[in-house]
Amino acid sequence: MIIYPCGNCRNLSHQFCEIVYEHLVIERMDPKYTSWFLHGEQLSASSHQEDVKISDTYKMFRDVHVKDDDFAESISKSRERELTRSLEDVETPLYLGCTKYTKFSTIVALYKHKAAHDHSDESFDELLRIVSDMLPEDNTLVKSVYSKKKMLKTFDLGYEKIHACVNDCCLFRKDLELKETCPKCNCSRWKVDKRTKKIKKGVLVKVLRYFPIIPTFKRMFKSQERAKQLTWHSSHKSQDGKMRHPVDSLAWESIDQKWHSFASNPRNLRLGLSADGFNPFANLSSKYSCWPVMLVTYNLLSWLCMAKENIMLTLLIPGPKQPGNNIDVYLEWLVENLIELWTNGVRAYDAANNSMFNLKAILMWTINDFPTYRNLAGCTIKGKVACPICTTNTCSQWLSNSKKTLYMGHRRFLAPDHPFRMKRSWFDGKQELRGKPKPLNGSDVFGVVKDIENNWGKATNERKSKKSQIIKEKEPVCVQPWKKKSIFFNLPYWNALLLRHNLDVMHIEKNVCESIISILLNLKGKSKDGLKARKDLE
Predict the structure, then answer these.
(1) Whole-number Å distance between alpha carbons of 294 and 272
(2) Sequence spans of domains, the chain
(3) Which residue of 96, 200, 422, 440 is surrounded by the most CB atoms within 10 Å?
(4) What's the rounded Cα separation, in Å, for the pair 379 and 390?
(5) Which of 191, 193, 216 is CA-nearest to residue 205?
(6) Of the candidates 14, 499, 506, which has an alpha carbon nearest to the alpha carbon of residue 270?
(7) What is the DSSP-derived secondary structure letter of residue 176?
(8) How far apart are CA 450 and CA 527, in angstroms?
């Protein structure tokens, strides 16, 4: 199959040579296609820059719109005409003689300005009219927000909308897809009018947005340059023992040793997952918390794998409250795709080698701060057993005046012959003869959590927390180190990984500094909390 160069198809689809010949006879040649760079002809020096621009535009359309199950499948006639018009918009100058901006690049620049400065649609419409009046009469600038959105819609890679329970009990998918209410908390999936208590049919109360990862991974290999970059790690492992890239880590080497067939194909993807909450309205006083879940591809070069354009947004969990331990409900579809990519893989086209192959992927670890670590791993991060390494052997002391827990016993992690172990007066008046605790591996953790029955939903958890609320003046009772069985244990390989969770040290340092500053401010003041905290320190 080759690309259609006829005047109607304009190099936007593939077909067999006989059909292409018929199209050329009936529709004739595309008059703008003067250099056959898409069919092997060398670019001339004079037209190199312009033709490369058109070639990149063509590749962008191919990556977005060609069906993933067949790289050479033709596009429908209506879609073909739409793509042709969109391609013309991308290449059309803003006005006659303009070389800096095209119709499309102008819209992108103005839309970025709208988002950065919180313009309303009405304000942005007025701005478009003013700018259009300033330009020559033959300008191609769109005149309204509606036209702008319609134009940008062509480039939408698409996402799935999944209805969610307002209390994070479940997602309305699979068996629950046709349900009107949550089977657990009995809350409606539709919004309810606060005054009339009537259900607003068709107005969803909470929507999860999922950006499918499998089509994205396939598109990555359709770019010849990107396909080469995705195998960079196989030939650039450090030879001097220094770690410059995750490929040099023990976790990567452990995967290579345990799953030889997976490691034998350098095109198989190694992924990292990160999640955290943020305020989408740029107002720190707001209580709304939106949670994005992102994936990082470690196959890429060390200076590209963490670049913002290569970080994939996979889930957008709505607020206003953070999901907490119920985040597993929202990760369900993503984990199902990761299981499919590990067990069976998917057929993908490799543009670098011009061949089809079976693409597989593995989630190596998660990256997060300490509070999010609790949500993803299901462990306790406060109280008597706050340390995920020591668990039940955590050395903690309750400060009754300031109602805080103090963590001691750090000398256990020093070398056996370290002089600090024998210092009594410098620390708690005791010698430290204990060794450092042995961290639990994935199999040990799974053995502890495998029998835990997860109970999702904020309504249920809030009722439980109210019943078990402890009086502040009393010391809190000991709690179990694990609160749930993490959904990541559904991955067949998760309990065999050497490293499952990474901590974002810079983020944690920021949180710790804020807590210390808050304590110091209390100590300087004359409040009751400050006086009590001062007694504890004494």
Answers:
(1) 8
(2) 2-155, 160-204, 211-375
(3) 440
(4) 12
(5) 191
(6) 499
(7) G
(8) 47
Residue 537, pLDDT above cutoff 60: no
Task: Pick the closest to residue 329 from 455, 214, 502 (CA basis).
Answer: 455
pLDDT given for residue 62 in this prediction: 53
261: nearest Cα among 181, 330, 345: 345
Q: Which residues contact 90 (CB under 8 A, 6 or more apart)?
A: 57, 102, 103, 104
pTM of the model: 0.75
Buried b (16+ CB within 10 A) or exposed e, 124-163: bbeebeeeeeeeeeebbbbeebeebeebeebeeeeeeebb
Is 371's pLDDT higher than 70? Answer: yes
Residue located via tokens 């947005």: 209
The rounded distance, in Å, linking the Cα atoms of 487 and 323 is: 14
Token duo for residue 301? 């070069």
**Beta partners for 397?**
406
CA distance 171 to 338: 18
φ, ψ dihedrals at 350, nearest 5°: -100, 110
CB-CB contact of 499 with 363 (8 Å): no
Q: What angle do CA 44, 46, 47 make, to 5 degrees?
A: 70
Give me the mean pLDDT over the 59-71 stretch.
48
Structure confidence by residue, pLDDT tens digits, 259-290:
999 999 999 999 999 998 888 766 555 678 88
Tokens of 332: 């369900």
Which DSSP symbol is given to 246?
A: G
Instruction: Report the amino acid identity of residue 142.
Output: V
Mean pLDDT of 61-71: 47
**Residue 191: C-alpha distances to residues 165, 181, 203, 442 (Å):** 11, 11, 6, 42
Q: Can you tell me the distance from the alpha carbon of 54 to that of 115, in angstroms, rounded to the nearest whole number?
A: 28
For residues 525 and 534, give the distance between their C-alpha atoms in angstroms, rounded to a whole number: 11
Collapsing DSSP to helix, strand or coil, 428 comes out as coil
Sorted by sequence, the CB contacts under 8 Å of residue 150 that are 6+ apart come out as: none
Residue 68: helix, strand or coil by DSSP?
coil
Torsion angle of the four alpha carbons 518, 520, 522, 528, in this order, in degrees rounded to the nearest 10: 130
Strand-pairing partners, residue 312, are 295
Q: Are strands 199-204 and 311-317 parallel, antiparallel or unpaired?
A: unpaired
Q: 52 phi and psi, to 5 degrees?
A: -65, -40
> What is the per-residue pLDDT across 404-433, written as a single tens digit (0 to 9) for each?
888 888 899 899 999 999 999 888 888 998
Q: What number of other Cβ atoms are within 10 A of residue 478's Cβ? A: 12
Q: What is the DSSP letter of 44?
A: P
pLDDT score of 536 more than 70: no
- Helix, strand and coil percent figures for the chain, each rounded to 5: 40, 15, 45
| Measured distance CA(374)–CA(450) in Å, rounded | 17
**What's at 133, amino acid-wise?**
D
C-beta neighbour count of 333 within 10 angstroms: 19
